[in-house]
Specification:
Blueprint: H1 5-24, H2 73-76, H3 86-95, H4 106-119, H5 125-139, H6 149-152, H7 165-172, H8 175-181, H9 184-195, H10 198-204, H11 208-224
Organism: Nannochloropsis gaditana
Keywords: Signal
Protein name: STI1 domain-containing protein
Amino acid sequence: MAKYHILLLIGLLGATGKGVAAFLLPVSLGPASDAQLPSPPLATTLGYGIPRSPFILSPLYAAADTAMDGSSDEDDEEVVPGKMKVSEIKAELDLRGVTSAGVVDRAELEALLLKARIEGKARPEILDTFNEQREAEEARKGKKPDFDWDAAKAGDGNLPGGVDPEALQKLTSSQEMMEIMSNPRLQELMKAVMSKDQDVIQKYMADAEVLQLMARFQKLSAEAGLDPSKFPPPPGME
């Protein structure tokens, strides 16, 4: 699987889950406790519908000029593009549909990436690519996915955003997580977030199946050692 597809999709699921949960909480999907979405800290401060600003699509690569989640400046320094390789910056720009052709100055590349993150840019087609690659992987019968963890790491050995590689690898090795990410209705919601289609986002706010899937995503993330509640909120929703 291409280096960044899985990272961006997981980040988008986290942002999507937090955004929808903020509008719906308190939400109860049934008697089972793990079928309830945990309340993100920002939920109590919101009283309106669709966010005024676009989502930061990948919390793993979120811009860290402001400590939106209360983390220290030292923690935030791990997230800035300055900690990424040039090849990583270009790869993320490509995923977000931003061309870096003709840009050779590192500072300009970093500025492009920060702007793309703040504006919540991403290409909905990455979901189609994810589906095609997953089908190809399953057809290989027993071969391990070709996600290049070493190439995805930053210069200090960590994944961008300071994410623990072992925790993320555990999460992406989960068959249940792959099934969640391949769900057509959830993918439609993620595409709507990327394209800022408010009508479709509204549609899925009352979809019990989608909310169940996002609740399972949050539970699996916690079990793998990742905390979705610490993902930065979308800009304008701090």
